[in-house]
């Protein structure tokens, strides 16, 4: 009897069987292109070593303005001169503050949906931006989102390599989402604590602290000025796409 005949066959690496498979003890190999987060400690905790493009990223914030844009600043800067869409932000974007983050005002497209962000205009605008592939990034603020809405947006995001981040309240972490990456952001002295609600990899219960250096302009907020008035979703998207 040949001893080798009874020996168990070598177990193939999961990703060689299908790119969507990975071991629970390790980070998955991202099947999509990623952009570096600019924070080595964070990138090391994400499949592919950065923010995935062409997919839904769920950022669950404790409250607005705790550093979410500073967290995304390196990735937005890495997009070059491609347009960046701010869809239904909670406050009027400040041009000088964004410029201090390395985001040129000429890159920005500020879009408002229906009254109070309700209705189908916001979803329609987000889908048009994602399916067109015309923009480098889409930041969408939403208070509430149904599962059907999240699935439609996740599907639309796969049409192009757009950095798509949906910013929602921290309480939404309890709800199901098709997003392969879900992070919670809570305020911490000198930065933010990043919690890993969902990722393709091992469970991590301890949040990751990231130091965020405040912009000098934050000390002189009265000197800032708002960006031009927002465009209505259905008035700007046909020309954009």
Tell me about this structure.
With 241 residues, the protein is α/β, with parallel strands linked by helices. It has a single domain, classed as Rossmann fold (3-Layer(aba) Sandwich). The chain contains 8 helices and 11 strands. The radius of gyration is 20 Å and the shape is globular. The model is unreliable at 4-11 and 216-225 (pLDDT under 50).
Brief account:
It contains eight helices and eleven strands. It has a single domain, classed as Rossmann fold.
Comma- or semicolon-separated keywords:
alpha/beta, 241 residues, Rossmann fold, two-stranded antiparallel sheet, 9-stranded mixed sheet
Architecture blueprint of SSEs:
Blueprint: H1 3-6, H2 14-17, E1 34-35, H3 40-43, E2 51-52, E3 55-61, H4 68-77, E4 84-87, H5 95-100, E5 108-112, H6 121-132, E6 137-141, H7 147-157, E7 163-169, E8 181-188, E9 191-198, E10 208-211, E11 231-232, H8 233-240
Parallel strand pairs: 3-7, 3-8, 4-5, 4-6, 5-11, 6-7
Antiparallel strand pairs: 1-2, 8-9, 9-10
Helix pairs in contact: 6-7, 6-8
């Amino acid at each position: 009897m040949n001893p080798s005949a009874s020996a168990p066959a070598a177990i193939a690496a999961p990703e060689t069987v299908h790119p969507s498979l990975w071991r629970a003890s390790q980070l998955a190999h991202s099947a999509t292109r990623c952009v570096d987060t600019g924070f080595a400690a964070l990138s090391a905790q994400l499949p592919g070593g950065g923010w995935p493009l062409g997919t839904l990223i769920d950022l669950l914030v404790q409250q607005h303005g705790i550093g979410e844009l500073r967290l995304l600043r390196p990735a937005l800067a890495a997009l070059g001169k491609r347009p960046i869409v701010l869809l239904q932000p909670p406050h009027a974007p400040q041009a000088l503050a964004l410029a201090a983050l390395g985001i040129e005002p000429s890159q920005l497209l500020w879009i408002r949906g229906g009254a109070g962000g309700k209705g189908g205009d916001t979803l329609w605008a987000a889908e048009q931006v994602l399916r067109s592939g015309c923009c480098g990034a889409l930041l969408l603020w939403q208070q509430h989102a149904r599962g059907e809405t999240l699935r439609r947006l996740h599907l639309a995001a796969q049409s192009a390599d757009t950095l798509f981040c949906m910013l929602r309240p921290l309480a939404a972490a309890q709800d199901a989402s098709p997003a392969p990456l879900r992070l919670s952001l809570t305020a911490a002295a000198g930065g933010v604590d990043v919690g890993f609600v969902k990722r393709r990899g091992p469970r991590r219960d301890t949040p990751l602290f990231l130091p965020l250096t405040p912009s000098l302009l934050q000390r002189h907020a009265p000197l800032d000025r708002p960006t031009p008035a927002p465009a209505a979703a259905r008035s700007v998207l046909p020309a954009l796409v």
